[in-house]
């Protein structure tokens, strides 16, 4: 199981991630309580061991700005978590050679069909919320995932936490998981929860 831990926004978070060593960490550049500047992401990246890859999370950002951020940090992958189109993905690909991940905020099986058609390197299935684009802690609807025809490997996100992860992985078999609020206590990353996730999911496979 590939593990991404998202929303690193303090030096402590980077130190915790360095200790538990997920495959990926995420820096949120979009509007969010977890938003970081490029300068902060550059600093946190330096605190992480080399094998941890870094993903930038963007919502409806221009391809030019994403490519610039990817080069400056530097990032290994860009996660598009908004309403980005096929055209945006193609433009971004022409500007930068990093992996492009596209997230779908799943309300129906159709949302899964649509995201699978896009020219992204990886897809991520997250829960839908009217209030925010991501990082809500709202659990994804497993019934939709079960009924959809999922033809590509995917990352599962949306309300995963140390209490529910094992049961969910008994039912659903993603290639990776992405967790933000479920590894926090009172809005800040929690080392014990991060350790627990690594115990349940493994990690360092992708
Ligand atoms: O983490 C955020 O604050 C965030 C903000 C805007 C877009 C995406 C964001 N994070 C992604 O949201 C999902 C689910 O997070 P959670 O575990 O339910 O809190 C995950 O893919 C994060 O990468």
From TrEMBL:
It comes from the Bacteria. It catalyses: N-(5-phospho-beta-D-ribosyl)anthranilate = 1-(2-carboxyphenylamino)-1-deoxy-D-ribulose 5-phosphate. Its EC number is 5.3.1.24. Residues 3-199 form the N-(5'phosphoribosyl) anthranilate isomerase (PRAI) domain. GO terms for molecular function: phosphoribosylanthranilate isomerase activity. Belongs to the TrpF family. Keywords: Amino-acid biosynthesis, Aromatic amino acid biosynthesis, Isomerase, Tryptophan biosynthesis. The gene is trpF. Pathway: Amino-acid biosynthesis; L-tryptophan biosynthesis; L-tryptophan from chorismate: step 3/5. This is N-(5'-phosphoribosyl)anthranilate isomerase. Signal peptide: none annotated.
């Amino acid at each position: 199981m590939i593990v991404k831990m998202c929303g690193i926004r303090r030096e402590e978070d980077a130190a915790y991630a360095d200790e538990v060593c997920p495959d990926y960490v995420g820096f949120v550049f979009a509007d969010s309580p977890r938003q970081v500047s490029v300068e902060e992401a550059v600093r946190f990246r330096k605190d992480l061991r080399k094998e941890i890859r870094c993903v930038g999370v963007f919502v409806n950002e221009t391809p030019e700005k994403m490519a610039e951020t990817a080069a400056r940090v530097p990032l290994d992958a860009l996660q598009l978590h908004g309403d980005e189109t096929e055209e945006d993905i193609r433009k971004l690909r022409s500007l930068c050679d990093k992996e492009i991940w596209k997230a779908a905020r799943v309300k129906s099986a159709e949302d899964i069909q649509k995201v699978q058609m896009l020219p992204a390197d990886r897809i991520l299935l997250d829960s839908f919320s009217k209030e925010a684009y991501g990082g809500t802690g709202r659990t994804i609807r497993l019934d939709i995932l079960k009924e959809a025809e999922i033809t590509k490997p995917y990352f599962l996100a949306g309300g995963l936490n140390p209490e529910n992860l094992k049961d969910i992985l008994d039912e659903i078999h993603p290639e990776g998981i992405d967790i933000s609020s479920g590894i926090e206590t009172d809005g800040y990353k929690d080392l014990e929860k991060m350790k627990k996730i690594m115990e349940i999911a493994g990690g360092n496979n992708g």
